[in-house]
Amino acid sequence: MTSPDPDTPGAETSRVTRAVVGVVVGIAIFACVGVVGYVAVVAVGVQGWADAYDPADPGTTAAEPTEESTAVGRETGLDASDEAYRQRSGTPESDAEAARSVPAVQAALDPVADGSAVDGAEVVAALADAGFEDVQVTGPTTPLGDPATTVGVGVAVPGGCVYGAVTPDAVTLDAGGPIADGGCLEMPTH
């Protein structure tokens, strides 16, 4: 075959057409390779991220589930990461030091639980009278807006926190480290 004469009418158009078609095909191939590569990288990244939070897979770096994280009403797996701010930090030594303050906090709050309605100001005043300065209490309403019959309380003490609840008839307390987002008392909702 002989090559077409460049002086032949239409020869110039075919060169331009071939050049345009070549550019379009090249861009299409480049786009396909890019999309396939992007999808592959995202798939590998998401799988690696999900595996890191899968407590069922022993080969991952996920923390072992604790009794609290698997209790009824608690989320596990990726949903548990939403609750991480509520987790208490501390060591056995610091928790034991905080526990030594439980009797003093209990003694300050027992008179408040006299069978009458309890409010946060009364709880704060009783603890201030006993010498506790850093005190947190829950508000006068529940997260749903109903009047609260229980006052949540958190008291900063050496070694961590004493935390619990005051109802009209009882005081329940525990000791441990502060929660991850700071303070002794977790927010009721967010």
Structure report:
The chain has 4 helices and 4 strands; from the N terminus they run ααααββββ. With 190 residues, the protein is α+β, with helices and mostly antiparallel strands. It has a domain at 88-176. It starts with 10 loop residues before the first helix and ends in a 14-residue tail after the last strand. The model is unreliable at 57-73 (pLDDT under 50).
What attributes does this structure have?
single chain, alpha+beta, membrane, transmembrane helix, DUF6993 domain-containing protein, DUF6993, 4 strands, 12% strand, 190 residues
In short, what is this structure?
By secondary structure, the protein is of the alpha+beta class.
Distance between the termini: 79 Å
Which regions have little confidence, pLDDT < 50, spanning 5+ residues? 57-73
- Quote the beta fraction: 5-15%
Instruction: Determine the number of helices (DSSP H or I, runs of at least 4 residues).
Output: 4
Helix content: 25-40%
Counting DSSP E segments of at least 2 residues, the number of strands comes to: 4
Mean pLDDT: 77
Strand order of the largest sheet: 1-2-3-4
